[in-house]
Amino acid sequence: MALSRNRREFVRDLGISAAAIPFVLNLPGLGFANQAKRKQRIVFMFSPNGVVPKAFWPDAEGPLGTLKESLSPLEPFKKQMLTLHGVSDRIRGDGDGHMRGIGCLLTGIELFPGNIQGGSDTPAGWAKGISIDQEIKNFLQKDASTRTRFGSLETGVMVPERADTWTRWNYAGANKPIAPIDDPYQLFNKLYGRAKDQEALASVLDDIKDDLKKVGGTVSAADKKLLDEHAAFVREMEKELKEQKAATAGHAVPKLDPGVRRDNDNMPKISKLQIDLIVNSFAADFNRVASIQYTNSVGMARMKWIGVEEGHHTLSHEPDSNEKAQEHLTKINKWFAEQLAYLAKRLAETPEPGGSGSLLDNTLIVWTNELGKGNSHTMDNIPFVLVGGGLGFKGGRALKYNRVAHNRLLMALAHGFGHHVKTFGNPGFCADGPLTGLV
Fold this sequence. Notes:
Layout: H1 7-14, H2 21-24, E1 41-46, E2 62-63, E3 81-88, H3 97-103, H4 132-141, E4 151-157, E5 171-173, E6 176-177, H5 184-192, H6 204-216, H7 221-248, H8 267-283, E7 287-294, H9 312-316, H10 323-348, E8 363-368, E9 384-387, E10 397-405, H11 406-416
Parallel strand pairs: 1-7, 1-8, 3-10, 4-7
Antiparallel strand pairs: 2-10, 3-9, 5-6, 8-9
């Protein structure tokens, strides 16, 4: 096939349906424009309510030794991991700490005045600028060599249905929050274009099996193998979604406290499904940017599956002297680290289609939080843990900074994609340029 041929021409000439397009886009042997150079990807992961510092941060700067309890699930990925202590959200203005914490986390800029009343005397509205994930997405989408079908995917796990400053961290622009998709059915339908509800989930593959056979007969053996793996993933995902539906059918909907959704106890299953879909979206080159948001700022998940009955936010307000609360908070953050470890594992075991290494070698995961510590509401020492080789950062290290503005880290992420922004968010915190010491 000639390298000048584009997707539209290929689909037209082969005579396959639009429904088969998601399975065709990333076949390396077809030589489409966005296969020409190394793919770089980034995933942003949010968990709320701060951490227990003594159970989270490495004691010393330099090579990572044995990880503390909260980060212990990440031991297998220590060589590709960076911890950034001393990176601080220095954005002030309207809103309480939780509101500014999540609303300014990826935007690096103040919130608008508004009518959402938080835990302070100052109400607030949405953020005044775009978030770094969307900035990077827009940069990649402008170039045919990095453009993808969706550009980015914004996903969630047990994010409340209400839309307010505590529940959004992705912004398409000033005053433009993006709602994450936290239903795996909806995410699956977005990726594969099947507008079926949960009651009538039919197989995507049943409608296009003849098209896939036709494509398989025209591509190389390597592309055929990738096509078969993609179809197998979709078939398995359909099976899991149907099984989840069957397992929860007929259960009475319990009465819940405000902010706790009926799927609280399904959180581990939903997390796995969302992560699997993100990984497959990368393998299929649907997008190069993704985010996964666990609950929300002031999130009140009750993690009974790890022996924690109390609401997360309530626990986070307990004093350091409450040893039981500290133990439970450590368990909670360890569970979040397990989700990151599962994401890293899935990326690491997935070969880079048409390239070298694994998806993890070409992806950076950024795990963060709206607060450094829950009971003080500090936005100093915001947890930032980076895993993966997507931006060429040198892993295996614990870095320590002196209250450096997190805007500089956001700038460094953009620069890692070749997007050399001069400032990001509030320019007053960008004078020293992108964060140093990462490479």
